[in-house]
Amino acid sequence: MTDTQATAAVPSKAPSADREPLLRVTDLKRHFPITKGVLRRQHGAVRAVDGISFSVLPGETLGVVGESGCGKSTMGRLVTRLDEPTGGKVEFEGTDITHLSTGRMRPLRKDIQIIFQDPYSSLNPRHTVGTIVGAPFRLQKVATEGGVKKAVQELLELCGLSPEHYNRYPHEFSGGQRQRIGIARALALRPKMIVADEPVSALDVSIQAQVVNLLDDLQKELGLTYLIIAHDLSVVRHVSDRVAVMYLGKIVEIADRDSLYAAPTHPYTVALMSAVPVPDPRRKERRERILLTGDVPSPINPPSGCRFRTRCWKAQDICASQEPPLVELRPGHQSACHFPENTGA
Ligand SMILES: Nc1ncnc2c1ncn2[C@@H]1O[C@H](COP(=O)(O)OP(=O)(O)OP(=O)(O)O)[C@@H](O)[C@H]1O
Ligand code: SF4
Ligand SMILES: [Mg+2]
Fold it and tell me: Which ligand has an atom closest to residue 75 CA?
């Protein structure tokens, strides 16, 4: 058993103070400037990610959920350093990578990989599967025992594909298989961490579970650490150890999976949860369905105080004047609301 596998075998519920996080994000911000006129003078900003903090432990899966436009992909691009933060800090294995140059980022590139939502556009249609999955070896000039072809074929098998697919082209595959090709490419350099940005939302519901299960199996086998982004809470439920809920560039609730699903405290989480079908219909305490009305406000000019207040059925005056801080309501369960639900009080 390797060191990473040993770490992965540690139950995820172990107190976080015992282990150093693999990824630590502190007050992360990304404001996209809005410019006007020929001089491109800045007259505002899209506050896509607006001060978020969290960490991910080795071998753990953190699920990140929220409606469209709340900043999930931007956050994913920031932590993989495909984009540069406007503020805050990103640390990987204790190293500050927030503003590392491309050159100094290169050795770390192999440790953090990203998988994208769309398995159609993320694979070059003119390249064979062998070229696509083997590209990371060539780019990083990594020598492989037995050659690149053998290494690629092993990766294909690991991801549930046939080694004979080596010479085929992406269009010959179904959506689920293409996503497996994307996963194989991401695994080529044996990364420590994978950021998966809506890895299954472009796939048929019947295929989604297979790809999620593959990610789960790979994590166990390779001791991977995941940050999995999804639109809705049902996709990440099965695989996540902890879940963060984002709304308009902020984390509004973050908790151990079981604590979050059993007793969500932020009204936004409660609303998202009410849209998820109850797994066992015989259960008596069927959740009341809460419909979220209205659109997510613009991240250019977010509401004062609590950003969710324009859609919250519990909003009071204080919600407009004071931003609720993210506080621990139960061990390992943080929420940002003046009037949280399910607190037992
Ligand atoms: N390059 C950019 N320039 C300007 N605004 C951007 C840019 N990228 C994203 N945005 C804006 O930032 C906000 C957050 O976008 P982001 O793609 O991170 O959201 P998301 O949560 O991933 O949404 P979805 O669920 O639709 O994928 C949106 O308002 C988006 O329009
Ligand atoms: S702080 Fe107020 S507006 Fe925001 S979620 Fe809580 S009750 Fe609703
Ligand atoms: Mg996105």
Answer: 1
